[in-house]
């Protein structure tokens, strides 16, 4: 005999929260028992599967979500393998007649989810997807001619004028959780580094989970948002929200952030508006990825397809290890390696250096970032790299080449960040720390690598290189 009230599966992905979770809210509204499940599917993403730092974050975020569900009297079911096979097995075991989830927008995820939705419907299982990650769906915002936006400023104006996000919802008022004893343990997912355990820098700097996300947002609104316009570009100071990994894993939603900023005491400051524009940049990146799904591997501007990038492996490795001889570049790369995160100003500096000083293919930088970042977000990462390389839409012009020395002097004037991540330079005076080699030679100091290229020469070479393809 069929179950008169079969359960509904809520498939958690990058929405690891209970509040303002449309799929969970809709499942609760059915009145049916809910089965919360997370499936670690490492095959579908292919080359874009999460790197070690992201997996570390995922472990702790899942632990936080599981704890929250346990307090409600339920269990987060953990599974591993091809997503459709795992869902089919869970449906068979539990008699569930519906699967709800919040949408993803990466090309591989869209392809997989469309196939799963079709398969479920063919079997008579309801399949519903929701917007739990964006303020506005990519198909709901367009230019007056109906085309996707390719420039950020008009996109931002349209978002503010026509797409104010709805008020976020809280946790479901009534949530009946289905008792399911199957599934794996969190340790069975094998997400944490063990031999060796290199996660000390991550543990020192980050606390994953929904509660931690709201705590970080509250701290930012109290201490930093009013000065955000001035301090956001100073990587040696605590001037940013550091919410990017929480947003990436969906521990907090962009509309929760938006309304919290709007309702804060600093809502009318320039800093608040500038911060919301950064949330809009995230939206813009997703908009581009949705409409141009080849972007992670293809130049948006096809005129650059003929580029003959430098393929010297030693050059790429020196950049990856933070051994270019330019302190601000090396500090950024070592921040990434140690903490799984990099300040946005540094991301622009190191990306510009790789693509324009070293003439290395931006795709190699993009892939390296994705392998090391805790907030390895394909849309935002690709948008940043193509902007820096000058190959994307709304990109930095090819003739604008960041000078790593003047960038360092301007944005880390006292060398705070440099000293933190380059201890070999900790005793260099402020004035010389941005270009330390002459000072070190004069005082017979060693321990820091020489410059891999000379800035003026590299800049002229880059200009000639890019101009020949423009």
Describe the protein:
The chain has 470 residues and is mostly helical. 46% of the residues lie in helices and 6% in strands. The protein contains 20 helices and 5 strands. It has helices spanning 22-29, 52-71, 83-94, 107-122, 152-162, 200-205, 210-223, 228-231, 244-248, 254-262, 270-291, 313-320, 327-339, 344-357, 362-372, 378-389, 404-411, 416-421, 437-442, 455-467; strands spanning 8-12, 34-40, 77-80, 98-102, 126-130. It has a 5-stranded parallel β-sheet, sandwiched between helices. α14 (344-357) crosses α16 (378-389). The longest helix is centred in the middle third of the chain and has 22 residues, at 270-291. It is globular, with a radius of gyration of 24 Å. The mean pLDDT is 95.
Q: Which helices and strands occur, and which strands form pairs?
A:
Layout: E1 8-12, H1 22-29, E2 34-40, H2 52-71, E3 77-80, H3 83-94, E4 98-102, H4 107-122, E5 126-130, H5 152-162, H6 200-205, H7 210-223, H8 228-231, H9 244-248, H10 254-262, H11 270-291, H12 313-320, H13 327-339, H14 344-357, H15 362-372, H16 378-389, H17 404-411, H18 416-421, H19 437-442, H20 455-467
Parallel strand pairs: 1-2, 1-4, 2-3, 4-5
Helix pairs in contact: 5-11, 11-16, 13-14, 14-16, 15-16
């Amino acid at each position: 005999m069929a179950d008169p009230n079969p359960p509904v599966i809520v498939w958690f992905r990058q929405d690891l929260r209970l509040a303002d979770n449309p799929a969970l809210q809709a499942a609760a509204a059915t009145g049916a028992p809910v089965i919360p499940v997370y499936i670690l599917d490492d095959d579908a993403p292919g080359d874009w599967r999460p790197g070690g730092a992201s997996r570390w974050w995922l472990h702790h975020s899942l632990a936080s979500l599981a704890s929250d569900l346990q307090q409600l009297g339920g269990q987060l079911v953990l599974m591993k393998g091809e997503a459709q096979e795992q869902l089919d097995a869970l449906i068979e075991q539990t008699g569930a007649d519906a699967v709800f989830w919040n949408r993803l927008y990466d090309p591989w995820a869209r392809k997989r989810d469309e196939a799963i939705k079709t398969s479920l419907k063919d079997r008579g299982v309801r399949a519903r997807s929701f917007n739990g990650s964006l303020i506005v769906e990519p198909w709901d915002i367009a230019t007056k001619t109906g085309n996707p936006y390719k420039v950020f400023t008009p996109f931002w104006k349209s978002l503010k004028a026509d797409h104010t996000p709805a008020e976020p919802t809280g946790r479901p008022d009534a949530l009946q959780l289905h008792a399911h004893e199957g599934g794996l343990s969190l340790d069975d997912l094998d997400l944490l580094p063990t031999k060796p355990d290199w996660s000390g820098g991550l543990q020192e700097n980050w606390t994953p989970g929904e509660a931690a996300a709201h705590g970080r947002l509250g701290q930012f609104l109290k201490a930093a948002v009013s000065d955000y316009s001035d301090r956001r570009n100073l990587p040696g100071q605590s001037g940013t929200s550091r919410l990017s990994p929480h947003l990436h894993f969906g521990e907090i939603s962009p509309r929760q952030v938006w309304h919290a900023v709007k309702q804060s005491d600093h809502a009318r400051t320039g800093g608040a508006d500038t911060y919301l524009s950064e949330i809009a940049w995230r939206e813009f990146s997703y908009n581009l990825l949705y409409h141009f799904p080849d972007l992670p591997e293809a130049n948006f501007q096809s005129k650059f397809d003929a580029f003959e990038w430098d393929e010297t492996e030693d050059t790429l490795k020196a950049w990856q290890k933070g051994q270019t001889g330019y302190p601000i570049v090396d500090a950024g790369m070592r921040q990434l390696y140690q903490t799984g995160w990099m300040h946005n100003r540094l991301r622009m500096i190191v990306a510009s250096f790789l693509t324009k000083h070293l003439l290395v293919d931006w795709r190699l930088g993009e892939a390296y970032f994705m392998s090391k970042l805790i907030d390895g977000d394909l849309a935002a990462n690709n948008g940043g790299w193509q902007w820096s390389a000058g190959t994307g839409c709304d990109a930095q012009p090819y003739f604008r080449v960041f000078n790593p020395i003047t960038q360092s002097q301007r944005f880390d004037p006292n060398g705070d960040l440099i000293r933190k991540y380059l201890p070999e330079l900790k005793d260099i005076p402020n004035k010389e720390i941005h270009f330390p080699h002459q000072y070190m030679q004069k005082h017979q100091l060693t321990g820091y690598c020489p410059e891999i290229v000379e800035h003026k020469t590299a800049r002229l070479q880059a200009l000639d290189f890019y101009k020949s393809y423009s």
